[in-house]
Amino acid sequence: MSKDTLFGLKSTKEIKVDNKIINQVIGQEKAKDVIKKASKQRRHILLIGEPGTGKSMLGQALAELLPSKKLDDFVAFPNPKDEDNPIVKTFPAGQGVKIVESFNLKLLTQNRDKMWIFLLGAILTMNIISFVWDWIASTETSEILIAADRISGMMFLLASLIIFFLFYASYKLSKNKIKNFGPRLLIDNSKRKTAPFIDATGLHEGALLGDIKHDPFQSGGLQTPAHERIVPGAIHKAHKGVLFIDEIATLSPEMQVQLLTALQEKKLSITGRSERSSGAMVKTNPVPCDFILVAAGNEDTIMKMNPALRSRIRGYGYEVYMEDKMKDNEENRMKIAKFIAQEVIKDGKIPHFSREAVLEIINEAKKRSSRKGYLTLKLRDLGGLVRVAGDIAKERNHKLVKKEDVIDAKRYAGTLEQQIVERITKEKKEYQIIVNKGLKIGRVNGLAVMGGEDTFSGLVLPIEASVTKGKGNVIATGKLGEIAKEAIQNVSAIIKKYSGKDLTQNDIHIQFLQTYEGVEGDSASISVATAVISSLEKIPVKQSIAMTGSLSIRGEVLPVGGVNAKIEAAKSAGIKEIIIPKANEKDVMVDGEIKIIPVENIVEVIEKALIWKNKKKLKDIKRKLKL
Question: Read out DSSP for 506-542?
Fold first, then answer.
């Protein structure tokens, strides 16, 4: 198989998957280079980017690449001078286990010797008691007295046994107490061959920084020694390794300050984190936590992260902005094929992919990039599609995943937003809320998206406008968000500019039909403008056309997001033509029987969408808008 082309590939079986995690990271060349540098110099890293782009894999790769360094075991000891200040010591990996086992073995040997003494003493005592009572009974002449002696003897023997067991239980309790005052192994690295990688994402304060368990029995000799209640935190478990925290900005300000202290001092005492717990009175000596921090998050993280913590990472490490797409070329297509092979091996339950199935996954990667000439690097969701396709192929007893398996998988692997939109579109078509034929005045098929950027799903958004007598108000309904409301104001400025009419005697009503899910963003601006112009001029709009685009106050049509998802929605609703911003033309990757009309300004929009019987009026509008 040639490396520079996909056409020689028959299946993903032919692709060799590297065991090293760093070589399994796809498309993040800059980040991989930084990871290699950071592993040699033990630098902290802040990774900012979209979910599913490989941030956690890079953290694991860093731990794998760290130079071999002797790890430590953590052992807790009681403090004879102050029981509320236990001592935590570190020993070379493997020695901690030996120290604890040595103490337990010594204690067991001592107990075993005394156990035999107890048992022999108990047996001898019972025999003597039994012999004495038998002798007393034999001296009696009356059968009644003999029976009474034997009953008394049995009761005395039973009482002796109870006393013996109480004494033995007391002895065992005291020995257990002695055992509890022995050393306790907190962290065992004896079997670890590589530096630890600890994922601390979403941990609460005690789990991250360490904690002391609550002791309900704090008196009467039943209390648990403080060193037995120590719980090491993730920062301590990551000693000489990597601590990975995704969405680091979600940590409370207090936790971020404590984390900063641990980074600076490379040690942090373990104490109880709850004021209501008896553990709050316990505090250990500073416990080593010399780890490399790999923090991750999205763009909001930059604003919400503690400035001092970020400064510490930046001053002693690197900041990396993750790629979310890569160029669509043969080399990168092979990377997608390699990713599929990796997912098949990791899953272990699905068959390999045929060449046709790989190409279908690559086509999906193109669409999900939302930009023509690129492939998405949000590979977590793409991996979900790979697994669903594999499950379908397995169910059909296919030796390799086929193209039709991938196509069917897209239906099963649809996001919740896509499933919701399908149901909404079906219902609106049935109730004729979405109209895709004929002409209507003041009614336009707008387009919108539901969900976040990773789960874009297109939606046909019918918009109606009506001009009535009033006081010059622009009234928009349909659960609009702030940006959508501002977009309506921009549209009203254009209407006033083009019409040349005195609109102070009229109200403009704009309705987004049945938008129970709400409307946000400005991508419906050209749809609103078209509906209002149609209503003002009494010119019908083609219902076979849908449109999307933002609008400047000068009438220029600006690019929007989710173009491919919107086109797919228009197709599924039976729309024949779609108007999009000229700037988005290069992003279109949807094939099929639908005409794409790129436009640069509002005049081009109404020229294509409205039925102009009076061409003079159109020229007049162009003149007024100077377009």
Answer: EEEEEEETT-TT-B-SSTTHHHHHHHHHHHHHT-EEE
The SS3 assignment for 28 reads coil
Distance of CA 516 to the CA centre of its chain: 28
Least confident of 161-175, 326-340, 586-600, 607-621: 161-175
Beta-strand runs (E) in 289-442: 292-297, 317-321, 325-327, 374-376, 439-441
**523 catalytic residue (yes or no):** yes
Q: Taking the CB of residue 361, how many other CB atoms lie within 10 A of it?
A: 25
Phi-psi domain of 610 (left: phi exceeds 0; alpha: psi -120 through 50; beta: other): beta
What end-to-end distance do the CA atoms of the chain give, in Å? 56
Give the span between the Cα atoms of 235 and 245, in whole angstroms: 11
Can you list the positions of beta strands (E) in 182-327? 184-187, 197-199, 211-212, 230-231, 242-245, 267-268, 287-288, 292-297, 317-321, 325-327
Residue 222: strand, helix, or coil: coil
DSSP state of 111: H
Cβ atoms of residues 3 and 334 within 8 Å: yes
Is the Cα torsion angle 168, 170, 171, 173 positive or negative in sign? Answer: positive
- Cβ–Cβ < 8 Å for 204, 86: no
* Annotated catalytic residue, options 338, 366, 566, 571: 566
Convert the pLDDT of each residue in 156-201 to its tens digit: 767 777 777 776 666 555 555 544 578 999 999 998 888 999 999 9
pLDDT tens, residue by residue, 325-343: 999 999 999 999 999 999 9
Predicted confidence (pLDDT) at residue 518 exceeds the cutoff of 50: yes
Give me the pLDDT at residue 405, please: 95
Residue pair 495/535 in contact (Cβ under 8 Å)? The answer is no
Give the pairing type, strands 557-558 and 317-321: unpaired
Active site (annotated) includes residue 566: yes
The residue count of the chain comes to 627
Please count the other Cβ atoms lying within 10 Å of the Cβ belonging to residue 336: 26
Residues 6+ apart with CB under 8 A from 155: none
Do the beta carbons of residue 96 and residue 146 sit within 8 Å? no
> What is the torsional sign of CA 433, 434, 436, 441?
positive
Whole-number Å distance between alpha carbons of 577 and 542? 10
Q: What is the DSSP string of 270-299?
A: -B-S-TTSGGGG-B-SPEE---EEEEEE-H
pLDDT of residue 400: 96
Contact 54, 26 (CB under 8 A): yes
From the list 267, 266, 260, the residue with the least C-alpha distance to 309 is 260
Q: Phi and psi dihedrals of 148, rounded to 5?
A: -65, -40
Q: Which long-range contacts (CB under 8 A, 24 or more apart) does 29-33 make?
A: 30/320, 30/323, 31/58, 31/320, 31/322, 31/323, 32/58, 32/61
Task: Please identify which of the residues 278, 492, 523, 550 carries the catalytic annotation.
Answer: 523
Phi, psi of 175 (to 5 degrees): -70, -40
- Cβ distance 292 to 43 under 8 Å? yes
Phi, psi (degrees; rounded to nearest 5) at 119? -65, -45
Q: How far apart are CA 249 and CA 414, in angstroms?
A: 30
Per-residue confidence at 373, pLDDT binned at 50, 70, 90? confident
